């Protein structure tokens, strides 16, 4: 049984037209029992010299674009997770949803 859908979006660029199409489809066809999660990848690439204290952030323009796309496509309940493979930002939060997906 499908429990979670992860939608990866590059945090340096924000949602593309294709991402918006996917959001629209998820808003139209995804059952309420299935969690739809937006994962903003490469969040550390918007920060000069990411470190343990400065793990990453997303520009206001990109975040506004994500929020606008979520509203337009009626998926405003989707959590947005900032992630970075290099700094491990968002790893624990992603695991939370992966555990949900693995539950019987």
Mean pLDDT: 89
How widely separated are the two ends? 9 Å
Classification by helices and strands: alpha/beta
Helicity level: 25-40%
Q: What portion of residues belong to β-strands? A: 15-25%
> Rg to the nearest angstrom?
14 Å
Order of adjacent strands in the largest pleated sheet: 1-2-3
Order of helices and strands: EHEHEH
Describe this entry's structure for a reader.
- By secondary structure, the chain is α/β, with parallel strands linked by helices.
- The protein is 37% helix and 16% strand.
- It has a 3-stranded parallel sheet, sandwiched between helices.
Task: List its salient traits.
104 residues, alpha/beta, three-stranded parallel beta sheet, 3 helices, flat
Summarize the structure.
With about 100 residues, this protein is α/β, with parallel strands linked by helices. It contains 3 helices and 3 strands, in the order βαβαβα.
